[in-house]
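As noted in the main text, all predictions were made from sequence alone. Below is one such record, for AAA+ ATPase domain-containing protein.
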Amino acid sequence: MSCERCHDTGWCAAATDATRVERCECWRQGVVQTLLSGARIPPRYRDCELASFVTYENEQLLRAVEKARQFIELFPVVDKGLLLIGPPGIGKTHIAVATLRQVVLDKGVRGLYYDTRSLLSTIRATYNPVTRTSEVDVLRPVMEAELLVLDDLGAERLTDWVEETMNLVVNTRYNDRRPTIFTSNYEDLSDSEALDSLLVRVGFRMHSRLREMCEFLEYSGPDYRDFEFTPSSEDLYRAWSAQPRRKLPVRASTRARAQLKRGKTELGWTGGRAGG
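Prediction:
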C-alpha cells in the first residue's frame, strides 16, 4: 500500500516549512527494521523490551534496569558501556538485548549482538582454507558497530588465542569510543585466584580495560527459567528471598594464575583490585 504522505518516495514536505523536504516516517521505519534485521538478535530475544521485563524488590536488579534506561536515553552521548554480572537465568541477556533494540529503534544506529562463544567459533571457522569468509569479514562489523552486545563473556576457556582475540575486539572499540554492553555469569570477586572470578575467566588485561570502559552492574536473583509459568514480581521475590548463600569459589589453576601474573607484569600492576 502506497504511503499517502510521500507516495513511496521517502521524502515529504517539512511540517514547519512547506518549502523544505524531510524524510518521511515510513522511510525511517523501513531503515530501522533493516537495522534490526542485521543486528543478529536471536529469535528468542527479538521482542525483548525493558517494559516487559518483570522486576521485583531487588535493589541491585532495579539499579541495573534503571541504568539501562538511562543508557538508552543518553545514547550516543554515553561515557561508559554496561557490564551485567550474575548467575544464569536472571535476565541479563533480556536487559542487554532490550537496550540494544531500543537504541536501534530510537536512534537508528547500527547495532550488533553476538554470543561470545559464537563469535569466537565464527572467527575460527575462517581459518579453514576452503572458506571464503576472512577473519576481517567477521571482525570488522563487530569492531565498527555503533553499539555492540557481547553476551556470556568468560564462557570460553581462556587460551592465549582467546585472550588475544577478545582483547583486540575490546581495545579497538575502547580506542574508537564505541559503547559495548557485556553480560557475564562470573562474579567480579576480589580474590584473583578464584576459578569462578571474572578476572580469571577473561584475563587481567581485559578486566582492567572493562573497568575503564563499562559500569559494572552485578546482581543475583532466581532463575526465570525455573518457572513453568510467567512469574509475577511476588513469585520472583519469594524465590529470591529463599535462595541460599553462594558457595566459596574454587581456586584457580596453575595455568590461570600464570596468565594473570603475566598480565599484571605487562601492565606494571603493583597489586590491589583492577580499577580500584
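The chain is about 45% helix and 10% strand. The radius of gyration is 21 Å. These features were considered when defining construct boundaries for the mutagenesis experiments described in Section 2.9.
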